[in-house]
Amino acid sequence: MHSIYKKLTAQDIGQIPFNANKQYNIHSSSFTSQSITNWSSSENYIWSSASIESFSSGAKDGIYPSLDTEYSLKYFQLEHLFYKDFKLSLNEKLGHVHYLKHKRELHNQVRTISIPNGLCGSRIKPSTFEILGSTNIIDDSYGNLYVSSSTLSDYNTDIRANILKIGPEKGFKNYDLNTINDEFEADLFYRRGKKRLQKISSYTKENIIDDSYFFNLLNYKNVTFSSKTLRGGEFSGINFNGTDSGIYIENDEKFHFNPGDDFTISLWADVKEPTVGQLSFTVNAATGSSSGTENLTLVSSDGTSKTYRVTAGTNATSISSNITSIQWEFSMPNATSAVDKATNLRDAINGSTGHNGKLVATTVGSTITIKQLDSPSTIGTIGNTSTTATTDFNSLVNLSVDNFRQGTDVDSYLISKSTTQTIIPAITSNRNVPVNTQITGALQTKDVPSSPQFPFEVYAFNDWMYFRRSDGDTIKTISSSFTAGTLQHITCRVSSSQMEMFIDGIGSGISGSENFLRDTQNNANLYIGNKGETEKYLTGSLSQINIYDEALTNTQILNHYSSSNGSPYVGNIFYESGLVTITHPHYHSALNITNLNFQGSHLIYENEYQCTIEEHEFNHTLNPSARKNRNTNSQELANFATGSNFKPYITTVGLYNEVGELLVVGKLGQPTRTSDETDTTLIIRWDK
After folding, report:
1. Spatial separation of the C-alpha atoms in residues 125 and 485, rounded to whole Å
2. Predicted TM-score of the model (pTM)
3. How many CA atoms lie within 13 A of 200 on its CB side?
4. Could you give the residue ranges of the DSSP H alpha helices within 494-596?
5. What is the pLDDT of residues 562-593, one digit of tens each?
6. What CA–CA distance (Å, rounded) separates 219 from 676?
7. Residues 601 and 611: beta-carbon distance below 8 Å
8. How far apart, in whole angstroms, are the C-alpha atoms of residue 103 and residue 446?
9. C-alpha 425: how far from chain center
10. Domain coordinates of the chain in residue numbers?
11. Coil, strand or helix: which one is 623?
């Protein structure tokens, strides 16, 4: 009995598409043969403010490589397709986006890895990408890359909690203020790279969106931008001139922070090291004598030496050419008043018989502060200042008189929500007289003093950093020592009504509880780099300014310091494009890659053929054992195969083409008996 073929119809044939994930483990030695492009740190894409006219379509990879030695065109392309204005125009950018989870930050340099579609297929499967090397990096399934040893919960990555963020991420585009770039002239790309005709020395601009997802409007005034070396690479920083520069944000209720509210302020700060000499001590209530042994000798930096001697005579009179009297004896009207003693010494130093302006003395109660001036320069240096106090003089003050030290008597405000608020004055006029809204100042905003309470102030004084809050009646202040003249990470936290400061990620200084009876919120604007845009201007730099409306944990604060920018993420992976970017300034230059591991999702079609055997079909067998003479060519069946109970079993199904060539062989898991009562359908599936 010869084989019997049954022709399949179109209804019997189907195709089912599905993705199969193929694992790849590729060593760096095979990158070239696998067409993987791994740009080395010396080939980072670098942003440039150069004119568009200086580039060519053949730059770098074409016939004019010298025209783009820093791969700036590739940087522009990458920025345009994936990063620029991402939060505002994410529907225009390539790559899958989870708005709450997916983060994109692009600094002035970026390192890229490109994986061809032949390997990644339709996309790289999320949570399978891994870089092995000097630092092992993995993806988080949302398109973010982070160091594999990091724990994401040890960082605050919730964009809803980060209510203010000023990197400034794009500050590097303003390092050169006199070259026009795309941040200066929106959409006028043909002017990029052109020099300004009228030079400017500082940046002043209103309504600039911050780096948070709350799109706070920043108003810059007379600041500059420069690169700052933080713990993990080069980031953009903002420089304040100490005279009239700053940033302000109009009053916003999300910064109100009343008693019971948790919040955290963190930033990098470089406060100018004080350059003036300062001496401070507290006078006690003991009375002096006329022995001539109670002497304080002060030498200012210009060499002027004066000795201030306790006497019973008139205060601030010349005893000799270099000796001036201070009345600290019983003849004083109030001989036991420490306040009066401090006042007499102050007047003696400031008077014509004393240093007369070459040192300046001030008092607060019984504490006297003696300092030098910032100008003229002959007075402003600390080098020649010295102090000599006799033992008898030191008995008249608390502890003893120490030498001059560097310092100042002016606070430098880093960030605060106090002092000044912006209002629109009510329109007033005489009765029955029409209101004129066309005169100068009508309906114009006006800055006025704010109420005395405030949710936070962070400021520096000499080598101390202060964090304080007030409900208008009570001011709660905590402080911590810090090092002026260096970039340090400052964190101020309120957690469960407990105020605390951290310097470089470590809890430092005094921790105190709030005990406010009233709210601390006000209508003041938020000011950065000064106090209310009226005083206490900062001389120094700030970077990575963040406010969270929740209390960061100690671990999160330490990790935010360690990562420099408060983020665990070091780059992005765009799964569908097969593109990997290393954007964190520390890792794009320090990363040495040895292996890439990932799974590529490849589209595969499963073919399905339904082979239906009707009840009267394929009811014979070709097995030789069913023939009497064991010959397949014989038509005579063996006795056991002639009964009605005999039914053949199916073990193999073959699919043939029209000329009888075997194409597919399907093996059943176990022999299957055919039925003479119902149809039997065998389904054959195979992939290709």
Report:
1. 48
2. 0.76
3. 18
4. 554-563, 587-590
5. 999 999 999 999 999 999 999 999 998 778 99
6. 88
7. no
8. 38
9. 38
10. 22-150+568-601, 159-168+200-273+411-428+438-563, 276-407, 614-687
11. coil
